[in-house]
Amino acid sequence: MKTHLFVTLLLLTSTAWAEFRAGAAKVDITPKLWPVQMVGSFHERLADKAHDPLYARAIVCDDGETRLAIVIVDNCLIGRNYLDRAKALAAKRTKVRADRILVAATHTHTAPPGKDRRTNRDDAAHRAYFKQLVEGIAESIVRAGKNLAPAELAHGVALVPEEIFNRRWHMKPGGIAVNPFGSPNDIVRMNPPRNLIDRPAGPTDPEVHFISLRESGADGRPIALLANYSLHYVGGLPTGGVSADYFGVFAGHIEKALGKDAGFVGLMSNGTSGDLNNISFRVPRPRQKPMQRMNEVAQLVADRVLAAHKTVRFSKDVSLAMEQTELTLKNRQPTAKEVAYAEAVLAGTAPKPLSGLAEAYAHRTLGLANGPREEKIILQALRLGEVGITSIPCEVLCEIGLTLKAKSPLPQATFTIELANGHNGYLPTPRQHARGGYETWLGTCTLEITASIKIEKALLAMLEKVAGKD
């Protein structure tokens, strides 16, 4: 009887003690040595300054049983090897397990390399930056953990349909160019000439999901706001400088509007934007000044989020759940004909006409032919209260994100963060593979053609588990 009473009291005490807590922090990861390369182009671009700072922005949440971290990094794409190092370092310094950490790149095209590439420069500036990147990610988690405080969470959705466009198009006759493999047989084209477009080859997703965190109690000090929008990036910056793009500008607007002190952190993660961008194909825009479009998009998205934020309801009764799995997928392998064409391109003997990207894709083709046959990727599913989050280490085509939302056991509040926990190229569906185009090209897309089906299946099963419905 005494033992039973003791256990009951212990359980009651544990339940009363377990409260939801959250903390946030950001660490400046702007390069310290110059010049640095900037990724996001087939041609080398160097930066010798920063138009605005680059950050690793972190949120740590704890419900008494599960502690997890989400880090959004101002980079184009980050290799799993560097992220694994950062997670191990953070796990060593904090109480967050490495498999309870989600780290994602925003996909700004004006940041130094975050992944080992054939075209990377190997010099002091770039070696220092990879070290700075790993340390900055880990340190952001450390600092966010130190800022943990009793908290409340709210979820909201804003709609911004007018700033996203599907960039894959069915074309009128004459609109398909020879691709980097010497074939004129693609069915769709990315970023095509406007005078030859017919119809978009895929959907868009106008939803901007956001999670808002504030301290519980009368003061209700804001802690962080994490948003998610499926917009590739905006660009339009002057040459020669790194920038966090619209992701950083959005974060700044949110911090200014909601932050009561310097400890508040705004974050914008990238949704499933592999085939979405900010180019208006049907209605051309007038020429704009450098950074103007980037600033306008960030302001509009921030305004919509802030308007929706006024209507959200906070709750302190928040439980957490997180699942992680390592999925083994095959890497695509070029045919003997594709290898022979790549070798001919590099030897200067390939038949004309030749795509302007033929040489770049010849290297990618041979890299796949000589590379590993399989790839292990990390997939994650999280639940924060009633909000579901999935993560994929690819540039994910929009329709995949829409499918996950529609089939999720948390259908009103599920979103996907792409480019998380590594980078494994683009992720089209088999239907989009059949249409061809940049996002499906061998080398742009490295995983097997059925990868999206396997990834969706795994993530939906993990969502069922974190939702407690498996």
Description:
With 470 residues, this protein is α+β, with helices and mostly antiparallel strands. The chain folds into 2 domains: 373 residues, no CATH class; 36 residues, no CATH class. Helices cover 30% and strands 26% of the residues. The strands form 7 sheets. The protein has an 8-stranded mixed β-sheet with strand order 7-6-5-1-8-13-14-16. A hairpin with a 2-residue loop joins β19 and β20. α2 packs across α3, α6 packs across α7 and α8 runs parallel beside α10. The chain starts with a helix and ends with a helix.
Q: Return the domain count.
A: 2
- Based on Cα principal axes, name the global outline: globular
The description of the largest β-sheet is:
8 strands, mixed
- What is the count of β-strands? 23
Using only C-alpha atoms, the radius of gyration works out to 23 Å
Widest sheet, order of strands: 7-6-5-1-8-13-14-16
Instruction: Specify the structural class.
Output: alpha+beta
Number of helices: 10
Labels describing this entry:
single chain, 23 strands, eight-stranded mixed sheet, 30% helix, four-stranded mixed sheet, alpha+beta, disordered N terminus, 470 residues, 2 domains
